[in-house]
Amino acid sequence: MTQKLRVVFAGTPEFAAAELAAIHAAGFEVPLVLTQPDRPAGRGMKLTTSPAKCFAVERGLKVAQPTSLRRAGKYPQEAAEAIGLLRATPHDVIVVAAYGLILPQEVLDIPPKGAINIHASLLPRWRGAAPIHRAIEAGDAESGITLMQMDAGLDTGAMIREGRTSIHADDTTATLHDRLAQMGADMIVKTLRDLERDGALAFTPQSEVGTTYAEKIAKNEAALDFRRPAEKLARQIRAFDPFPGAFGTLLDGVAIKLWSAQAIDGAGEPGTIADVSPEGIVVNCGAGALRLTQLQKTGGKRLPVRDFLAGASIAKGQRFHSVSTQR
């Protein structure tokens, strides 16, 4: 009889919680869940637990939240304690999904069957922190999930399995995230079952051709620069939904979150509102124009343009700041 695989899981956000839920539902033993420490979040800066921790606590799984796993880092005592806990926890493999902490080689050497990373891109494209956002922002035709054997590099390990999905014209980071999370969940369960049955997995070295890096999304990127082409701004709006949310600022200083827009033909001074109607607010861009169809006032709700205009004074000829640094 095949011994049930014991899986230490390391992950933090909703994406990770979906992968952990699938592993747990498939019947694998999860003796330990590593996730980032509780941190202040939201307007009230209330101490918030990660989605992965919430799932683990609800299922009675053991949780550890070290600030670091690097003995040579800023928190050597925490790292040493966490590494000691890992060594003392019987397990076969570590599965990592959007954990957010670096796993040094010392940690990768602990599990007898290695560490598997669930990464939301088609490696080597979009290694790094924000692959879903960057794929949409760049206008990629497809995205996917890559399972890889972790090494000490940044998403450079040998590949185990790959799944692909088209990026739809109306995909946001939220919708693509959910599709990839489900794909990753299905793939990791299949892979763990293969590992449990065969005792080892086949790997394919990762190419260095076509490597790109998905830098972490900075809040200051959310301000739209209307001097850019409308097509790129429409992708930026979809890429930044739900976080950080793209916005434009009118010359009178009013900032408006922009959640949905289409690139259309148009010409004129970038940032100038060319038309206002229940079908959309049209803003000239560096090339073409944007038709804004879902907007949000500060402190308000996301609204279709028709409802937004019922409570906002927006008129043809008004201007948004065209430079992204203005707020």
UniProtKB/TrEMBL annotation:
Top-level division of the source organism's lineage: Bacteria
Keyword Transferase assigned: yes
Gene3D superfamilies: Formyl transferase, C-terminal domain, Formyl transferase, N-terminal domain
Binding locations of (6S)-5,6,7,8-tetrahydrofolate: S121, L122, L123, P124
Domain Formyl transferase N-terminal: 6-191
Catalytic activity: L-methionyl-tRNA(fMet) + (6R)-10-formyltetrahydrofolate = N-formyl-L-methionyl-tRNA(fMet) + (6S)-5,6,7,8-tetrahydrofolate + H(+)
UniProt keyword terms in alphabetical order: Protein biosynthesis, Transferase
Start and end residues of each Formyl transferase C-terminal domain: 216-312
EC number assigned by the record: 2.1.2.9
InterPro entries: Fmt, Formyl_trans_C, Formyl_trans_C_sf, Formyl_transf_N, Formyl_transf_N_sf, Formyl_transferase-like_C_sf, GART_AS, Met-tRNA-FMT_C
GO molecular function: methionyl-tRNA formyltransferase activity
Family (UniProt): Belongs to the Fmt family.
Function as written in the Swiss-Prot or TrEMBL entry: Attaches a formyl group to the free amino group of methionyl-tRNA(fMet). The formyl group appears to play a dual role in the initiator identity of N-formylmethionyl-tRNA by promoting its recognition by IF2 and preventing the misappropriation of this tRNA by the elongation apparatus.
Protein name in UniProt: Methionyl-tRNA formyltransferase
Organism for this UniProt entry: Candidatus Burkholderia pumila
Species lineage: Bacteria, Pseudomonadati, Pseudomonadota, Betaproteobacteria, Burkholderiales
